[in-house]
Every structure is written in structure tokens, then in C-alpha cells.
Amino acid sequence: MEIFMEYQEFLDYIYQRHSGNVKLGLERMLSILEAMDSPNKKLKGIHLAGTNGKGSTAAMCEAISLQYGMKTGLNTSPHLVDYRERIRLNGKNIKLNELISTYKKWESVLKENEASFFEITTSMAFDIFHSNNIDNAIFEVGLGGRLDGTNPFESTVTVITTISYDHTKSLGNSIEKIAFEKAGIIKTNTPVVLGKIPAEATKVIRQRAKELNAPV
User: Fold this and answer.
1) For the segment 31-90, what is each residue's pLDDT rounded down to a tens digit?
2) Residue 215, preceding peptide bond in cis (omega within 30° of 0)
3) CB neighbourhood size of 91 (10 A)
4) Domain 2-13+26-211: which topology?
5) DSSP 8-state symbol, 94
């Protein structure tokens, strides 16, 4: 019974940190991950961005990974019913005990950095996946890419599903500007997989990939 009370207290706190005014930036996230000994640098896996199709593509990647017998972690948003859907291990929602113990372990760090709802969730996913020796970590971008809390992930594959007009106040009012933000998750020498993307967006993404020697 106590664990359920702790879970409710956890939810109460993180929803207080859930602001409708999204402030993009990596300063807090990088500080938190450094305190955690940089689990984002110790994982292999897939980083997904895109206007639409991220969640379904992430779910397919998870299913394929599990089919091949890989220890798999999946971090997506939003959740449908249970917050724990956001952090999955081997096809199942994170266990309550592990979620709460991870939060308690890093509670002081998260509060000192005034972490947002998304930053709390994402940083805990990094730590949980590393602690479980995950073979394939799959992270879905929350908003944009370049300044998203998932972007410290040093992934081994980048996926950009689609590009269209969305969150224009944060990402820009043109396809090219939005594509630039999405392309911000591309890492050096890391393969890039593109979905059906407009030509003007593809040009921006390919240019960024070329700068980083990332094959498309």
C-alpha cells in the first residue's frame, strides 16, 4: 500500500512541474545527466523525431528489437492511461518499485535543477535503461529535436519520420525551419533514416547530415 501512496506523491509532484509554457533548452538536462554520470553516453539505440508517426514507429522498433531477443528500452510521450507507459522495459511498463526507487535516488538532483515534467521522465529513463544494461534504447523526441530533453542521447541511429507544420511558435513558421530543428538530433557518423518528407525539408536534413558525416 505504501508504494501506491509514494507513486501518487510522485505524480502529484511531477504534474506540478508540467507547464503548458514549454521552454526549450538543454542546460538543466545536461546538468542532471552529468550528476547521473552521463547514462545518455553509455547507451546504444534509436532516436526518433518527426511531426507525425514517431510513436507508432517507436513501437514498431520496439517490437522488432524484442523479436530479435534484444534487451529493449522505450521512452515515449504522451501516455494514454498510465504514466509508466512512458518508460518501458522489454515490452512492459516500468515496474512501480523501480520507478519510485529511481526517483528517490535522484530526487535531490532533480529538484536542485528545477527539472520539468519531461526532464524528470527523460532523465530517469536514461538512468533506468543504463542500469538494466539495455541493448537497444529507443527515445522519442518530445518537441522539435535540437533543444529537446532527449537530445543528449548519443544514439546509434537517427530516424526522422515526417515534417509538416506543427508547434510553429517554438519551431518556426516554415518547413525549412522546422526541418532544421528536427535535424538537430543527428549525431556525427550516425546513420539517418528518413520517412516521407517534403523536398525542402529533405534538403535541410541532408545538409546537416553531410556536415556531420552522417549517412542518409
Assistant:
1) 999 999 999 999 999 999 998 899 999 999 999 999 999 999 999 999 999 999 999 999
2) no
3) 12
4) UDP-N-acetylmuramoyl-L-alanine:D-glutamate ligase (3.40.1190)
5) P
- pLDDT tens-digit series, residues 186-203: 999 999 999 999 999 999
What is the rounded CA–CA span in Å between residue 110 and residue 112?
Answer: 6
Sheet containing 45-49: give its strands across: 92-93, 87-89, 72-75, 136-140, 45-49, 157-160, 192-194
Q: What are the residue ranges spanned by the domains of the chain?
A: 2-13+26-211
Q: What is the largest CA-CA distance in the chain?
A: 55
Sign of CA dihedral 150, 151, 157, 159: positive
CA dihedral of 164, 19, 152, 170, whole degrees rounded to 10: 30
